[in-house]
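Sanity check

After download, print the first record. It should look like this:
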Amino acid sequence: MDDRRDPGQGTGKEAPERRAPAAEGTTEAEAVVFVCLTCEVPLTGPLSRLPAVPGLPHYEWWEAEEPGPSPSTVPAGCYAIETEPYGAPLVVSRLPVQVMPRYGAMSDEGGQWLVSQGPRGNIVINPDDARGLEYHHASPACCGAAPTGGMNQRCPCGTLVATLSSDCCRPYELHFSADHVRAVRP
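Expected structure tokens:
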């Protein structure tokens, strides 16, 4: 795949926003723990909601002494809701727009631009705040996981619950599927 950075926006196609379910009786200012919908195992410690996913932190990955993930987009102990499509499936776009938020533009082997038609409403956290997740698979990347192939993290019960982005030149963030986890009080 050809991979080109572009600060462009989405395709203009709007889909209904999915929101992470709030824990019963909590306010947005209160911390929550995310658990697997299938087995109820806690997948995070207590996290507080941010009003939006932060922008990318400045990081010159090409000058890093050791390959590895960039600094996390989301601070430790926090989460945010992704309002744009994120992850697979990727479909052809007529314009060179960002394939997904904070990721840059991308084209397929034939040179056609791609854009995400993945879910909206993902819960974005610092990957270091995740607990007990197992690596399932990932799209090829030089130093870590790429989100272009879909969910790549599973709960110990085997349910796919999240998509990790951890390649050196990409955002370092974990996206929980709002359809596979729920928020509970700590």
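If your output differs, re-run the checksum step. Summary of this record's structure: The CA atoms of residues 34 and 183 lie 5 Å apart.
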